[in-house]
Amino acid sequence: MSKASEYPMNRAIRIGDGDNVATAIADIAPGQLLFADEDIRAAAAVPRGHKIALAAIARGSPVVKYGFPIGRAAANIAPGEPVHRHNLATALGDKGDYHYSPQPVQAAAAAPSTAFRGYVRADGRVGTRNEIWILPTVGCVGNLAARVARIAGERHAGRVDGVHAFKHPFGCSQLGDDLGHTRKLLAALAQHPNAGGVLIVALGCESNQLGALLDLIPADRRAHIRTLSAQAVEDDEAACLALIDELVEHCGDMVRTEAPLSKLVLGVKCGGSDGLSGLTANPLVGRMADAVAAAGGKVVLTEIPEIFGAEQLLMDRAVSRAVFDDTVALVHDFKDYFIRHGEPVSENPSPGNIAGGITTLEEKSLGAVQKGGRVPLVDVQRYGGEARLPGLTLLEAPGNDAVSSTALTAAGATIILFTTGRGTPLGFPAPTLKIASNSDLAARKAGWIDFDAGRVLDNGFERSAEALLDLIAATASGAPTKAEANEERDIAIWKSGVTL
């Protein structure tokens, strides 16, 4: 991709050599040149992040960005004309015809000798935080958990990195796989390496029975877990606080020790994307994925509906036929999920995405998958599953920011890189770095944004990647994210079934 600094007068970027559209990197007025060295002028105003035709595109012909079709022209498009909802339509169908044709994945350059200071757990995993987590089995005890977390957080300030309750409205009036999702997700969170101690608080009469939840947690990962059924004790608040005191004695005063980048589990996520996300923030995060994977670490990518239209690119990186088959099954299952509910698989992008310049799901997906860099696809995990292998794991979860980021945490992510072109204050159990696709957002919402990826348009990727990797190492070593400083720490569970 060209850098703006190479051609200071450029107002747009052509990403792939075969692209017939470019993306505006600044607002373009009618008649302005797009490139310093080419006589292509805008026929009308084009906002930053939006597309503009580089050549005549006949109605029905592919519109190409990132070197791949992002849909078909819904009308004849003249050179210099804006390309958006009025003249571009998705070409996605309900099903995909996928083929196994593994492509050699060019290995990323050897990772720098970046290290971080984390908490080494008994099983060798390394946490980036040493916190006490309170997990309610059911929404009925959510406020109890939150109240206990506030009291315990003040009581044990300085001994642990924090005491946090993760409320949710589920755990009762659920059936079958829907209840299973809740149970599996909570069991996975209870095993997270950032939690030096976990208190699971039950009500007692809920569908999500405590015993069944504990059955999902291996015995060798239960030493740091305590449980309480509120209906079984007289003073539930005091009983919870006593158990947290016990947990703090178990894990409090732990010290950070140096750990290699290979011990990091990186979750990658995008939300509120704009037309620059696929040019700046997402490919920059892809370089972080490459660095972590090259060191021997794990990278987790999710948001399955937001790879539709680009899924074959991931399938081509599968390390085996079995991983390819698992990926196909996951994509088909998610498309069937849409179809069962009478929704088209292309019911995306969001209004915010559209305002930011993204037109079709293909365009959004081709930008989104760049967060996985060039890392080989080594495993596919269903919702609530854990990343087990070095390399890229594809995780089942919807595109919803809170649901998918919670699933990334449950999969073991100890840092989440969250790219955004529109901005969001949300934070999740794992430290979440917000990475802006454009410098305007980074400046306007400095209280939300941790890193400005818009700088790659001037500085290029190499310097920006070095700066972001340094920030990741500092965050993994304890520096708070903006979301943590703002006390934005929440979970959301995927509700996929009926409610009794």
Automatic annotation (TrEMBL):
Query: Record keywords: Heme included?
Result: no
Keywords, in A-Z order: Lyase
Q: Name one GO biological process term.
A: D-galacturonate catabolic process
Instruction: Output the SMART domains linked to this UniProt entry.
Output: SAF (SM00858)
Could you tell me the EC number(s) of this protein?
Answer: 4.2.1.7
Q: Which Pfam families match?
A: GD_AH_C, GD_AH_second, SAF
Which Gene Ontology molecular-function terms are recorded? altronate dehydratase activity
Q: Which EC class is the enzyme in? A: lyase
CDD domains linked to this entry: SAF_AH_GD (cd11613)
Determine if Hydrolase is one of this entry's keywords. no
SAF domain span: 19-89
The record, for InterPro entries, names: GD_AH_C, GD_AH_second, SAF, SAF_UxaA/GarD, UxaA_altronate/galactarate_dh
Q: Which family is it part of?
A: Belongs to the UxaA family.
Q: Which PANTHER family match?
A: ALTRONATE DEHYDRATASE, ALTRONATE/GALACTARATE DEHYDRATASE
Q: Kindly provide the name given to this protein in its UniProt entry.
A: D-altronate dehydratase
Q: Which organism is it from?
A: Sphingopyxis alaskensis (strain DSM 13593 / LMG 18877 / RB2256) (Sphingomonas alaskensis)
Tell me the lineage of the source organism. Answer: Bacteria, Pseudomonadati, Pseudomonadota, Alphaproteobacteria, Sphingomonadales
